[in-house]
Amino acid sequence: MIDYIFRFEIAASIVVIAVMLSYFNANKIKTRVSDAFTALAWQCLCASLFDVASIFLLKFITPKNLWLNYIVNILYYFMFNAIPLCFYVCLYYLSERTRMMPKGRYWSFFGIYLFMTVILISTPFTHLIFWFDENLVLHHGIVFYFYYVLALFYMGAGLTHFFRHKNLYSTNQIISLVSFVAVCFLSTIFQIIYPRIIITGFMLSITILITFLSLENPDDYVDFEMGIYNRRAFIVKAQEHFDEGVKMHILAISSENLAHILKSIGQTNKKMFYDKVFSFLRETFKKENVFRITYEKIVIFLPIEDEIQRNEKIRLVRDYFSEPVKCGNIQVSVPIIMKTVETPEDASGIEDLIDLLEESLDEKINIEVETPLHADISLLEKRRREHKIIQLLEEEVSENSFEIAYQPIYCIEKGSYNSVEALIRYRTEEFGYIEPEEFLPLAEKNGLMLKIGSFVFREVCRFVIDNRLQEKGIEQVHVNLSVIQCMQEKLYEHIFDIMDHYNIDYSYINLNVTETTTIVANEILLRNMNMMKQHNMYFSLDNYGTGLSNTNTLVKFPFKIVKLDKMLVHSAINDEKARIILHKTVSMVKDLNMEVVAEGVEDLGEYDMAIYAGCDYIQGFMFTKPLKPDEFIKFITKA
After folding, report:
1. Is 226 exposed, middle or buried (0-12, 13-18, 19+ CB in 10 A)?
2. Contact at 8 Å (CB) between 137 and 1?
3. Which of 149, 398, 486, 612 is deepest in the core (most CB within 10 A)?
4. Are 44 and 12 spatial neighbours (Cβ–Cβ below 8 Å)?
5. What is the spatial distance between Cα 212 and Cα 38, in angstroms, rounded to a whole number?
């Protein structure tokens, strides 16, 4: 009988136990990868323990305990030979986090293993895997060596999958894969040369350790501010539910003013607030069901089976937030919006689910509702439309196929149209005409406005020269600047280069800037404006009278013209207070030696109000809507 040296197997057990204790103690989310790794670790541990037990029993084998030797060896082979399969599964889900393994591949891989398991269980009778002779000596059967072929098959499948998706693996995960393959190969060679020294389990335990270190950091799934799972964790869990066809009932909670409220109460009270809210949510729903997907939005998996229980838990949330949360010596009142979503009825995929949750919580509704509103699935159509528009915009930017419309501006003193504003227009085959209020914010969010802004400015300059607008009485052209354009350090150089190319006098272009832009781009914009002002360029403050309407903006920035928002004039028609504000605003602007444009004038009443208030220019549909280039030329020529 061979005198086996099995102390390395004992060391293997210690290593795997240490890894498992560290792994299970981590604040991790349960995923397919974590399930596969857990199975891998348990199999390595059990294989090592059963290997030690089988070697120990061999020393004391008798005909009476032969059955026990068979059982322990069967358990060892059952566990040990599942390790390559579990490693492949773990490898697969490291790259395919949001996709189930194809059923054909699943059943073929597990089917082979199950078939070998049936043969293994029958081996006391068939002697196909191993057997004991009349002298109680262990022998390997003819099928035993097929386990090596099977291990090579799983390793080959894993390597094939890896090379197809290697860009999806981290450096540590690649090291783990290389280590596993190397360990399997070297330990097999070593075991053949030195059969007395049982070292395979120890080498695999080292691989388990390396794999553990290569797994995603559990902290990546945790929102540390609140101590609950984050958006990434929610996407992983929700995607698994979609893949497995599990119905989901989700409660979404939002507080629009949460950031402002918590900022005002101090760091200590803020932490206390989070601790109390999280403790309530954890006790009510369990930690693994609560996720923070944005700063002010939390989503919760509700119980699936019992509608009464779901409604009771929703009531608990409503009641909890209806009362102030006591933090130290202050009380924090947090008004919330609640929405419910069911899958697959409301959303059939993870992207639709995220879109529906975010859009529904962003809806402007009465927050004093007694019960949560069901998410409006029509919002998905809105989000899909946005995605499609963004896709079209990206194509249009490269092709420069936007349109420019021109709206004349009427000079009251001269009684004629002496300036014009250039406005971008966008028409598609799929959606027809798309309002600037819809597509410009999308372009801004997706980094397209620099290219669009540059195209508009070039096109306007080309139009000015090609049509000799100055000869037609147009003394100045107004062009809008986006926020992102105004944040460019060398904006003035870009503007000058284009105007120089078309040989246009700098004073001929008036650049429109909103008050929001002056806040966001502030010092950079100021430096650009001062540089361009030195070259006789003019600037207009657009949409004044809405938002902050900060008078400091008029003092700090070198504006020549202030464009009043259309609501300022419209409100003054029937409201005495609004009329006083309009008069005082125009008077103040003119005292600052600036000119005033009344925008959005649509009828004679608003026209008279603008003149009565002392405006210098009028722009709006009363005269004409924004015109296509050829229509504008005809209009201005006729005028």
Report:
1. buried
2. yes
3. 486
4. yes
5. 10
What is the domain-level CATH number for residue 542?
A: 3.20.20.450
DSSP at 560: S
Q: Which residues of 286-319 are buried (b: 16+ CB within 10 A; e: fewer)?
A: eeebbbbbeebbbbbbbeeeeeeebeebbeebbe
Cα separation, 135 vs 131, whole angstroms: 11
Same domain, 84 and 62: yes
Cα–Cα distance, 452 to 507 (Å, whole number): 23
DSSP three-state, residue 283: helix
Q: How far apart are CA 527 and CA 173, in angstroms?
A: 49
Domain count, the chain: 3
- How many Å apart are CA 338 and CA 344, to the nearest integer? 19
pLDDT band at residue 596 under the 50/70/90 scheme: very high
pLDDT for residue 586 is more than 60: yes
**Do residues 360 and 433 share a domain?**
no
The mean of the pLDDT values for the chain is: 85
406 strand-pairing partners? 422, 627
Q: What one-character DSSP code corresponds to residue 106?
A: H
Owning domain of residue 612: 397-638
Give the confidence band of 269 by pLDDT, cuts at 50, 70, 90.
Answer: confident
Helix axes 515-533, 491-501, angle to 10 degrees: 60
Instruction: Count CA atoms within 13 Å of residue 317 on its CB side.
Output: 30
> How far is the C-alpha of 625 from the C-alpha of 628, rounded, in Å?
10
Cβ neighbourhood burial of 150 (10 Å; 0-12, 13-18, 19+): middle
Cβ burial of 428 (10 Å; 0-12, 13-18, 19+) is middle
192 located within any domain: yes
The rounded distance, in Å, linking the Cα atoms of 331 and 397 is 51
What CATH number did the domain enclosing 77 receive?
A: 1.20.1070.10
